[in-house]
Amino acid sequence: MPADDFLPSLLAGVVEKHDAELVGLRRDLHAHPELSWDEVRTTRLVARRLEEAGWRVTRLPRTGLVAELGTGERVVALRADIDALPIQDATDDPWSSTVAGVAHACGHDVHTTALVGAALALAEAHDRGLLEGRVRLFFQPAEEVMPGGAVYLMGLGALDDVERIFALHCDPGVDVGQVGLRLGPLTSAADRVEVRLEGSGGHTSRPHLTGDLTFALAKVTTELPAVLSRRMDPRAGVSVVWGILSAGAAPNVIPDQGLVAGTVRILDAVAWADCETLVRELVHDIVRPYGVSAHVDYQRGVPPVVNEPVSNRILARAVLEVLGQDGQVVAPQSLGGEDFGWYLDQVPGAMMRLGTRTPGGPTYDLHQGNLRIDERAIGIGARMLAGAALGALSEA
After folding, report:
1. Contact 162, 337 (CB under 8 A)
2. Of 13, 45, 345, 356, which has the most beta carbons under 10 Å away?
3. What is the pTM of this model?
4. Residue 248's domain spans which residues?
């Protein structure tokens, strides 16, 4: 067998050998989901399996773990997120969630299992002397909250010496057997903003004698997104969408306080750095004519995931080796947030979209309780992650 074909064949063989185990692990994790910072059982299961395979495992002070294999100065990292969501599982599969109100509705059980599969394949490559450096695995807690697990791991030094990092994310809009790649911004920055207004309150028959807080709140709701779109580069892809709007309890009373809260999403990292200051300035400018005061609580969430060219090329080569010419599709940009962006703010890397839809079957959506995954994606994800690590270490 030609040398170029040996490693992909080895990875495929190892993953296929462990296929039943990996599917069983994914179903176990799906049946026992754990919320952010509570991933105790998940951490224990993963740590035990990696130690059996020869990885050097470090359990983190809260939850999650970092594992390493190999020797040398060069280090490539692979990351999986392990937490679940506070969502009721709406499926009736035998492995449906046994925890009321908690489910792996974002596919993190698949991410975790795929990285375990990659670890088993890389351990085999290491035993055969084919690992040209070190691979470090992040089984990261708390991706679904802010500030999340990526910041936590970086604070513990997990990213030290890492020259490149890769991850995957389930995409139920892409068929199993395909992987979505995109150069540049893949996801957006995601921040939260809450605006609280306070005024004197009064009767709706005498708005001139009080601050018309409800009218001012409506102005913030409509004008902040509009003005922001004119004050920022439109190529930055800025989106402000409100989820909470609250004021008053009676139709003839102007309230003395009100609230509007939502998210700010931006595809450009430079624009993201400037956005908070501008939002605060605009809110105060908007409400000034109405005699009310504004308090702005702006919480920076995550930066955009921006796939770096060399790392994206490494993934493209892995897709070709694992899935062939028809395996790669173009991943659309998403305004969803993903804390993998914090790692890419420090080192080059890329995230791929792993197809999980059964061809011809229904299209599900992430963060929904009825999400179903074609489990053939687990082995594909494992081979993709392992191939990316080996490909990065073979780069000159």
Report:
1. no
2. 356
3. 0.92
4. 189-302
